[in-house]
Prior knowledge:
Order of helices and strands: HHHHHHH
Radius of gyration: 15 Å
Structural class: mainly alpha
Shape: globular
Number of strands: 0
Oligomer: single chain
Strand content: under 5%
Helix content: 55-70%
Number of helices: 7
Amino acid sequence: MDARLNFxxxxxxxxxxxxxxxxxxxxxxxPLPDATQELVSLRVSQINGCAVCLDMxxxxxxxxxxxSVRLNLVAAWREAxxxxxxxxxxxxxxxxxxxxxxAAGGVSDEVWANAAEHYDEEQLTALVILxxxxxxxxxxxxITQQPAGDYVPGQFH
Length: 157
C-alpha cells in the first residue's frame, strides 16, 4: 500500500510536522505517566483505526517494558483486571473524548470527575491534549492511508 501523500517530502507538511513533533515531545515530558500515555494513544488509535499509530505506540510501549497482556487487553479494558483505576479513568476519558460525535453530550460530567479523582490539573491538561493530539494524528494517517508495520521504537524521538 502506498500513502496518498508523503508528509516527509512536502514542504508545507514539513513546516507543520516540526511543530507537531515538538508538541509530542512536550506531552512525552509531561507529568502524565508514560504507561498512561501509551495506553491512551493505543485506545484512541484503535477507535479510529489508525494502523500507523497502533504500530508505533504498541512498539514504544513494549520497548518501555509494557506487558503483552496489557497491550492486548487495551481494546477490552472494561473487562480486564490488569489496569489501575487511574488508567481506567484515562481510557474512559479517551473513549468519550474520541467519540464526541457519537455521544451527543460529549464527555460526561461523571467521566470527567472520575479522571479528576486520579489526575491533578497539569496531568489532566496533558491527558486532554494527548487525546486531541492522537485524534488529529490518527485522522492525518487514516485520510492519507499511511502504511504501517515498519516503525522502529525511538524513530521519532
